[in-house]
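Hey, can you fold this one?
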Amino acid sequence: MTAPAQAPSTDHAAFSYLNFLLFCSIVAATIIGIPLYGYFVGFTTFDWILSFVMYVITGMGITVGYHRLVSHQSFECPDWVKRCALIAGGWALQNSALIWCADHIRHHARTDTDEDPYNASRGFWHSHCGWLFYETPHRTDKYEIRLRRDPVILWQHRYYWAIVVSGLAIPFALGVWWHQGWMGGVSALLLGGLFRMFMVLNSTFTINSLCHMIGTQPHGTQDSSRDSWLISFVSFGEGYHNYHHTYARDYRNGPKWYNFDPSKWIIYTLSLFGLATNLRRLDPSVG
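Sure. Predicted structure:
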């Protein structure tokens, strides 16, 4: 089988100043602002617990909602469950499900070519986060056709920025309520909002970058995807990336029972309550 033709280089694509400023603001707040605030003011156990809870919720919103449910249709669920998953994914500040999932569908269709949004052959920086700073000419309507048929996806796309703001307002409000003052809201916002946002962004980025560079390829060498059990611990089970590229519609990224894949456990648990159906298992050699 012949390799897909390489698309024109995106080196001269328009620079996205909005994405650049958002990214730099989050990074600066995380590595400069939050440590300074912690040193001079301090954080409480509540702030750290809230940060962890929001990290899990928003991370699962990406892996279970954006990735396995919408991008790959690896299971089905009621609309209200889908709305909850897409709200949680929207809190991660990784774009609306319509755009994120269209990009991801394109990633699988054109892996390791210039049409691949996070083309790993262009190096770690580009595949990790550098691709965000350019307006790609390859974001075409054909990857959105199926997605635009879903009214829940269109609803989330329409109210995406309101959802993002709510993901910051909630930890602030919880901090004000718990600490009985607006400074407590600031503490909760910094950890439960900005810090967890930075962590979830980078947990997703590691799949695009490191899981195409380090690890093993036990399921196929058709592209650069690799399995890394270690990365699964920070990405809710997404580190079994070579398996995923080989069996993209499987609801499990870690197919064996002992693989650390909290996302598949959440999906399976939902199925026990009738909230997830048609869970797809594609590798016949794995039970």
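The two ends are 30 Å apart (CA to CA). Let me know if you want another pass with a different chain boundary.
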